[in-house]
Amino acid sequence: MLVGGGGVSPGGPCWPGGTTPRNPPILGGNLSPQTPPAPQAPPTPGPPLLLAALETVRDPELDEPITSLGFVASCTVSAGGDAQVRLRLPTYFCAPNFAYLMVADAYDAVSALPGVRRVEVVLEDHFASGAINGGVAARAGFARSFDGEAVGELDQLRADFLRKAVMAGTDQVCRPLAATGADPAALLAMTLGDVPTSAALSRLRQRRAELGLPAGDGDPLLIDPATGSRVEAGAVPLHLRKAHLTRVSIEANSGICRGMLRHRYHTRGQGQAPDPAEAPEEDL
Prior knowledge:
The protein contains nine helices and five strands; from the N terminus they run H-E-E-H-E-E-H-E-H-H-H-H-H-H. By secondary structure, it is mainly alpha-helical. It has two domains: 47-145, GMP Synthetase, Chain A, domain 3 (2-Layer Sandwich), CATH 3.30.300; 155-264, no CATH class. The strands form two sheets. It has a three-stranded mixed beta sheet with strand order 3-4-5. Strands 1-2 form a two-stranded antiparallel ribbon. A hairpin with a 4-residue loop joins strand 3 and strand 4. Helix 3 packs parallel to helix 4 and helix 6 (155-179) crosses helix 9 (236-264). It is globular and about 65 Å long.
């Protein structure tokens, strides 16, 4: 029987145009939808990725990566994603608040890596290792880790050292400009965008940004690191002297720490930068 001019397939549905598909679907079957593949776990990072993460951790006082300073004794990661980092410091009595910041920051940096399941950061050979290692592992914070001894957390200390880093970075950027003829008035008039690109400028921008200080191209080169406001004209010479003294102080402390670490341990740290004191003398 013809209905509406279309063909009817016995026992089957009527399809547009009166035709039956060559391979009609099976009706009433027991087909199950395909199960999507399970998401793959990210691959376990190797030691180079761990070192790269640790390179973002800085000694708060010296404003240098703990890797280049030689503070990373070892870093390993298992096939299952269990990472262990062992840190060392120049002396047994290094300030525990500085040490805590570095251990906690190392824990956070490695924990953020895809593929890392568990992190253990161990500070070795330090009088407060037990309190620091246990406090960081428990995510207890500095005050609870040193209950009865600490009066608070370390946010203000970190900010104070960042301000010093901004001052030292200002000297690193301004000295080459002054050497090419820029006087204090010219430096005061400059913005960050006026300064030639350099590693020192990038570092200064980063430290200012970490403090929430202006760090864009149109922002002043010379600012008060406590307020972010442009330095007053009459205060520029003193500001530049303070910046230079801050830089010299940090670099001197860095040299002392490197020397003490070198004499305390006779092995190089993971990712340690060449020590200028170990450079061979040129033949005369």
